[in-house]
Amino acid sequence: MALGVCTVCSEQNAKYRCSKCPVVYCSLSCFKSPTHTHEQIEEATKKEVTTQKKESDTENDQSKSKSLHQKIAEDPIIQQLLRYKSLQVHIAVLLKILNDSSITNEPLAENRREIANMRLCNLRMGGSEENELVEEFVSRVIELCS
């Protein structure tokens, strides 16, 4: 069974495989070479495991986020509330603020979120533009997210 070229010297055909790592080598001198260290392999393995875990966590977060969005979108109370034109208008204004393409600079983009948040706070209970529909909608979304 051919193992390919020695991964240490890259000159000879490999005859042996390291029992601790995937390195194949041609001779004892390559096996004992300073370039053949298991620390590098362990670090690479740890890095690979960490990367796989991060990818898995990201996929899980996206899946949870998607199912949460679906849960909110399919909620009968949310659907009923969204039939009101006044609530649609308030949500449209908030989305317009958040999606304003004329603001692309990151500090300004953060300001968009702050402006939208202040607008939403004004529409909620105790705000200067208090709206019962907005309060009920936000309360329901928070309830579904809990």
TrEMBL record:
One of its GO terms (molecular function) is zinc ion binding. SUPFAM superfamilies: HIT/MYND zinc finger-like. Residues 40-69 are annotated as: Disordered. Residues 40-64 have a biased composition (Basic and acidic residues). CDD domains: zf-HIT_ZNHIT2-3. It comes from the Eukaryota. Keywords: Metal-binding, Zinc, Zinc-finger. This is HIT-type domain-containing protein. It comes from Candidozyma auris (Yeast).
